[in-house]
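Q: Here's a chain of 119 amino acids. Please give me its 3D structure as tokens.
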Amino acid sequence: MDVEALYSTAGDDAVVLSVHVQPGAGRSSVVGRHGDALKLKVGAPPEAGRANDACASLLAETFGVAISDVSLASGDKSRSKTFKLSGVDLDEFRRRMELVVEGGAAGPGPEARSPGRSH
């Protein structure tokens, strides 16, 4: 799958990632692809930067970097944002990106995949 359209490299150990954010969701998760962006749902509302902080936290967890290595590059008050992730192993980043985009699944953690529910 072509995931390179979702990010660009910014040096040997950094990437700039395009994301589309849906704030105020029931829980935070990586949903999959949204055009040329990675779609995130975050539980935090879009008030006082809380949704941006939730996005940064979700990205750090998903891509295995420290929260201090994730910074908002643009889109402070927009659903379309770019985040810079520093300290990444590019091969590992690409592997994780392919997993979350292919599966259209949530990021890591206990909320990532809910057990099936009977209707």
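Q: Can you summarize the key feature?
A: The chain has two helices and six strands.
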